[in-house]
Amino acid sequence: MTNPSEHSLPANSMAESREGDFGCTVMELRKLMELRSSDALTEINVRYGGVHNLCSRLKTSPVEGLSGNPADLEKRRQVFGQNLIPPKKPKTFLELVWEALQDVTLIILEIAAIISLVLSFYRPPGEGSERCAQDISNPEDEGEAETGWIEGAAILFSVIIVVLVTAFNDWSKEKQFRGLQSRIEQEQKFSIIRNGQLIQLPVAEIVVGDIAQIKYGDLLPADGVLIQGNDLKIDESSLTGESDHVKKSLEKDPMLLSGTHVMEGSGRMVVTAVGVNSQTGIIFTLLGASEDEEEEKKKKGKKQGVPENRNKAKTQDGVALEIQPLNSQEGIDNEEKEKKAVKLPKKEKSVLQGKLTRLAVQIGKAGLIMSAITVLILILYFVIDNFAIQGRTWLPECTPIYIQYFVKFFIIGVTVLVVAVPEGLPLAVTISLAYSVKKMMKDNNLVRHLDACETMGNATAICSDKTGTLTMNRMTVVQVFMGGTRYHQVPSPDVFPPKVLDLIVNGISINSAYTSKVLPPEKEGGLPRQVGNKTECALLGFVTELKQDYQAVRNEVPEEKLYKVYTFNSVRKSMSTVIRKPSGGFRMYSKGASEIILRKCNRILDNKGDVMPFKNKDRDDMVRTVIEPMACEGLRTICIAYRDFDDTEPSWDNESEILTELTCIAVVGIEDPVRPEVPEAIAKCKRAGITVRMVTGDNVNTARAIATKCGILTPGDDFLCLEGKEFNRLIRNEKGEVEQEKLDKIWPKLRVLARSSPTDKHTLVKGIIDSTIGEQRQVVAVTGDGTNDGPALKKADVGFAMGIAGTDVAKEASDIILTDDNFTSIVKAVMWGRNVYDSISKFLQFQLTVNVVAVIVAFTGACITQDSPLKAVQMLWVNLIMDTFASLALATEPPTNSLLKRRPYGRNKPLISRTMMKNILGHSVYQLTVIFFLVFAGEKFFDIDSGRKVPLHSPPSQHYTIVFNTFVLMQLFNEINSRKIHGERNVFAGIYQNLIFCSVVLGTFVGQVLIVEFGGTPFSCTKLSLSQWLWCLFIGIGELLWGQVISAIPTQSLKFLKEAGHGTTKEEITKDAEGLDEIDHAEMELRRGQILWFRGLNRIQTQIDVINTFQTGASFKGVLRRQNMGHHHDVKLAPSSSYVAVAPVRSPPTTSVAAAVSSPTMGNQSGQSIP
């Protein structure tokens, strides 16, 4: 695999100074990158004269890279383009306004208001009016008749306000997401060699001609050609749909494509295509073109009522799902094709969303029925009263006046509906989530999928990695075993014979990735900085402690001179490097987990540095006396060994033959101290009812020691610590298939899983999620940092990736990125998640009280007095305050530590608990009693004129103004009651910490004063005296006192109270979900009873649909990185693929993405087939 370095170029500055253009054009390079394997090799060798000549045409040096001269970089950007794909234009404010106007309830109101407006200008011929109906005021009151148009105009105006508020919310949400997106993008950097220095460069700044260093776990940011590679294997499934890893080498296939994952090995490549010219970019461009054509189809499709399924919480597109504005209709067509093409395993929406959707649909239905009955009763009463009882005849000239009455009734009916449908719910959810996401940034949680935020609040189990999450990921060698002696601290170098010292230094310096380095500390007196793999950094630090210089050895043996490298992977659990010896023959250095390497050793060095035989008995003694004691102190043991090949060159591909007969040099014990804040965080999790399990690749003794230090295990507990092998033996049947019953016996007691493979982690997570034992189903969060954690992160309800140590692949599969790699941040995420859930419950409690009261008042008022005591415009104001402002106030409550003192809600707990139901009904009783008293006896109490049964266009009465004012003030004080939903007495606790809440309550109060005092006819209000105001306030404050009375009633005694807003049961899912891509509860409900105007909760996550064959991330800056890991890994990594591929119907909420199955061929939908 060595690379002849004769062709290396003159120094890069000279290469770049040659004038004129580069030796190849963008199109030539594009064509080159479309070739594969042998065709590509031929093209490179014949046309360009090999990779090194290609580098010289691109004016770059394969060793030094570009010089980084700004003028040169700019020129390259102009000729070859930038490494970013231009984002889709965000929707303009006007488009969002147009979308908000599509709401059916609003359209009905607009139409009714316009009819009312037109009719109000009609005057019947002089004589007719008395004959038409006695209720119409006398024509002498010209001034009053003139004001007939005001109501219609006021309704239109209120609709405009509601639309603008909605559009503004959508717009600001869109803006926030764009910000979040760019933040995620800036996080991604890549290793580039410039001027001979390895630097971390943001992906967007990479140019054609750059030399990139690639290693295990990278997601390639641009297309390129391999210059030098060690054991390189790439997962190209995101482009080709083939799940097998493709071997890359100079002799066979040197083409590396953007958006593919490095699964093994390392190497260097020269960048040949970036941005829209890279393979990923070409596909994006095709997508953009095909989307415009789709628009037309979509419009047609919508008319025929294509079922919309637009909130896949985690679609194929990895990141930027929620970045589209709300009701985007994208991808319906694509999705239809997709449904036919691939039967995907079904997945549920997020826990909260499922519950909310069902609840909102039920409320919507109830409101619809109530409003229909209201209109019917009003019309019937009017007709019977006028034409039957009073025996009038229908006169042609009176028709417009009768129609005016009917329109008024219709408006009342629609108003009831407007108040009943809780369209503030999606808004509350959105605001709450967006607010939490913003705040979680400060707590080191970078949320990539919105729904993960609330799912985290329901988490019942966390499967955590050990290294870096529970520990500090600052490894140091603290013990050494060498030549039969165990040193409890690192000895001085003169203890070792020179030849042994030489072997140790070479074995570590050469046989570790050259990207791992120990750099001097940034601050005086600080610790040295560890760059790269932390275990390797510990070993390099050990070399430095032995007063040797690893860099000198590396300079002597540069990467080009390495003959063969077997890189570390999760199967080998070791790394070996072969070099040529000056005297002829080869030497291989190996290092890895001690029990694995020792099994392959048959010789060992003694204290003089001579080779001794090493038998099985010696090995067992060593494990017992050296390795186990080290492991029990929580140390990770690494064995360093070597082997010489002096005779003939062996066949390097036959790994099992090569990696045997090693000679053990030394065993070192590496300490990775537990983070000081972790034990407290784990104690918090236990109090909060969350089980923490540790899943690690380390040996069982090390894992047990660390778990005990963290507090996962406490002495005297009856919990299991298993190794991967033992775990598999216990859960699989004779055929090697995982059995859920067997797994159900193990997982409740399992706390530590050691020496586990990625498959074991995936099996455990899947088993816990699918398990149905216990009173509630589990919601599982998983942390991971390596490429191999991808499947488990995807399967989990919430996947946490490490921001510092995590590979791109892990970040890609995750929902939340921990920017500080710290376990305590997960606990903060739990707190925020629970807070989101509680905020939404608070809002529900408030909203439903208003809904119940307003609907009943409008309904009974209309039936008894032929007119709703609350007018349409007043209802719209109530709707605005209780929906938009209250959702702002209640959704932005900051979390408190008390949230971590209760058990998680889990999947099946209803949204509206008994306590909340008690509060809703209790407050409704109080409000209804007060309002009915005011409507039917208020005029006597206040000694004013009655406002009941007034003629059509009469001026507003003080009576009904008092009713309206009292109603709003009661809501205002009830909003304070709604701050607590678990029956707490002190509703004012911490109210000053929430400025938004205080300002919303004050603002609403000021608004109400202005409406009553200056609203006049449009709001059907008239001025009130001070004593009337004080009475209204007194009744409002009564709400707070009444709240105390309600909380004194024990909920247990109210057995008759039902809970509402349950999660979906499994049977229902199975029955209803046939033929559905994803279990969308809204759709099921809608199919059961077609409610036209249910404005979806689907607002939270709307999707950008990317062609299903190519699962990419979003089309936003630098997004060459966002490919999905693809479902096939699940299949590949599990020993029995059928078990994983067919996910059971009851699979958990959307975070479990088994649905990103890519279709095997690429291109037929995008209009160009890419070979």
From TrEMBL:
It is found in: Cell membrane; Membrane. The chain crosses the membrane at residues 368-389, 409-435, 843-864, 920-937, 957-974, 995-1016, 1028-1049. It comes from Galeopterus variegatus. Belongs to the cation transport ATPase (P-type) (TC 3.A.3) family. Type IIB subfamily. This is Calcium-transporting ATPase. Residues 47-121 form the Cation-transporting P-type ATPase N-terminal domain. InterPro entries: ATP_Ca_trans_C, ATPase_P-typ_cation-transptr_C, ATPase_P-typ_cation-transptr_N, ATPase_P-typ_cyto_dom_N, ATPase_P-typ_P_site, ATPase_P-typ_TM_dom_sf, ATPase_P-typ_transduc_dom_A_sf, ATPase_P-type_domA. The lineage of its organism: Eukaryota, Metazoa, Chordata, Craniata, Vertebrata. Catalyzes the hydrolysis of ATP coupled with the transport of calcium.
